[in-house]
Design goal:
Structural class: alpha+beta
Bound molecules: FE2/S2 (inorganic) cluster, fe (ii) ion
Distance between the termini: 57 Å
Radius of gyration: 23 Å
Order of helices and strands: HEEEEEEEEEEEEHHEEEEEEHH
Oligomer: single chain
Number of strands: 18
Shape: globular
Helix content: 10-25%
Length: 329
């Protein structure tokens, strides 16, 4: 029997997944954000999934933050789902074995002896600038550099963070290339000119300075943009011109397909509170509009190891040299 089937009305999205479009090592080495400080109070225990791994994030009663592998060595419970804080330890919800921040089992309430293999894998963590950062290294090596403390964070002259976040089917390297891709600002985002960008490498830091025109409700404004990328996970972007703004951006790989991008904006306060919030809101809306134009490009493009570039392109070659250090060969 023949069954009539209506033809599909739209072309399905047949774009291959991130791993096929972007054949780069998926998980680079460096510091990556896993939470904001304000999301984790003393006594909180949360599940995390980044780098294709399951982990548990917790803050002890004294305020220390730790990340451990998620699965209890006893019978495999996930400590992030129902685990509780007792003093400086996290207690498994299944049979109440306790683990300290170094991953050691400190107590088995119904045993005379703690099994020597009762241990959880640990991750290096830093908490600064209102962010909780995790060190990822493919070979498990200890951190070789640090994320800097930002003068603007917590300063009386700067507003508290205003945050935005997205899960995106792309790769850190592809997304960070935006900063040096001068031409896309004009042709994708519609800025009033094409920024002149210069890029310099200093070890793990990429420093990019651009001048650009931004569209605002009050017309075009010339400004300077200074980007400092500390590896692939943590970038500061300082805008001057209309209003002084700092964007703290982080991108953390979730799995083979998705990355988690977080933006935190802080604005230097103007004389009048309403002026700060009005101008700040317009600025945040403009940056958000630009990101939402980037996302469909990122989610469908392929990574070209040898792109065909022209003399008007930004310092993409410098960028591509810088990125190599974050992969284990
Ligand atoms: S599974 Fe964690 S204590 Fe048993
Ligand atoms: Fe962009």
């Amino acid at each position: 029997m023949n069954v009539a089937v209506d033809p599909p009305r739209t072309t399905p999205d047949t774009t291959p997944g991130s791993a096929d479009r972007i054949p780069l090592p998926r998980y680079a080495n460096g510091w990556f954000q896993v939470a904001y400080s304000h999301e984790l109070e003393a006594g909180d225990v949360r599940p995390l999934r980044y780098f294709g791994r399951d982990m548990v994030l917790f803050r002890t009663e004294s305020g220390a933050v730790h990340v451990l592998d998620a699965f209890c060595p006893h019978l495999g419970a996930h400590l992030g789902h129902g685990g509780k804080i007792c003093g400086e330890d996290v207690v498994c919800p299944f049979h109440a074995w306790s683990f300290n921040g170094a991953g050691d089992c400190t107590s088995v309430p119904y045993a005379a002896k703690i099994p020597p293999k009762a241990k959880l894998g640990t991750w290096h963590v830093r908490e600064l600038n209102g962010l909780i950062m995790l060190w990822h290294h493919t070979e498990g090596l200890a951190p070789t550099w640090e994320v800097p403390a930002l003068d603007e964070y917590g300063h009386a002259e700067w507003t508290p963070y205003e945050t935005r976040e997205w899960n995106i089917r792309s790769h850190n390297q592809e997304m960070a290339e935006n900063a040096v891709d001068s031409a896309h600002f004009r042709y994708l985002h519609g800025t009033s000119n094409m920024p002149e960008a210069g890029a310099e490498i200093s070890d793990h830091i990429l420093h990019v300075v651009s001048t650009t025109g931004m569209k605002t409700p009050r017309g075009g404004v010339d400004g300077q943009i200074t980007v400092d990328a500390y590896g692939f996970g943590f970038t500061t972007t300082r805008f001057t011109g209309l209003v002084e703004t700092l964007l703290v951006a982080s991108v953390t790989p979730i799995d083979e397909e998705y990355v988690h991008m977080r933006f935190a904006f802080t604005i230097r306060k103007l004389g009048h509170h309403n002026a700060t919030s009005g101008v700040g809101r317009a600025f945040i809306a403009e940056v958000t509009r630009q990101v939402e134009q980037d996302i469909p490009i990122w989610e469908h493009k392929v990574y070209l190891p040898r792109p065909v570039l022209c003399d008007g392109d930004g310092p993409i070659g410098v960028y591509r040299r810088w990125v190599k250090q974050f992969y284990t060969a």
